[in-house]
Amino acid sequence: MKIFMFLLLLVTACCSPVNHEEAISYKVALELVVHEEHSLKYPTVTKALNDAVQEWEQHIPIAPTILTEPKKDSSAFLSVFGLPSFLNRPGIIQVLIDDLQGPGYDLPQNIIGLWQPQHNPPRLLFDGDYLESSPDIAYSTALHELGHVFGVPHIVNKLDGTISGFVVLEDSAEEFVMYPANVPGKGQNKLSEIEINIARHYVLFELTRPRKSSDCSLTSQN
Ligand SMILES: [Zn+2]
To answer: Residue 84: inside a domain, yes or no?
Structure first.
């Protein structure tokens, strides 16, 4: 019996394919670029964004950096970094904290946060004028919009009558960060297992998605 147990242990040890203690850990790089004038004008929203990024970082494998850029014109990135490919890098997101109900925007009323992946670089927009006086809503809005950045769709109730493709629950969807409206008194400031799981899968998928892959310029250090 002792010999059998010894052999069993030996076989188990030899055949374990991965030693998790020695496995290399890696994270997906994410750079959020906030305009300096926005961060100065809306310090509460900027803090909420920072806090929300830190919260997501606790749960999914991301290595986030929040950069403050002095110039409003995004073409300034080119001169600052001198690399035309900078804007095409997959991990860059331009964060605009602005009055989304003000001039220059043509958005439906009551929009307080918006994720616009179709832009290059993608844009994350916040209604600074509204959110600056409501730190809690600013935080839950930042958590929500970052959820979209990480591929998490809206979570709705079965009876909400929304289009398909969302995550549908029997009820209580209002308590989730990814519910599509801010509902007073419902919390919406704690990430759920559902939201974390979707985001975790998505950020790893982002690494290999064909349209996100960038040109290769392998260099030699010789
Ligand atoms: Zn949303």
So the answer is: yes
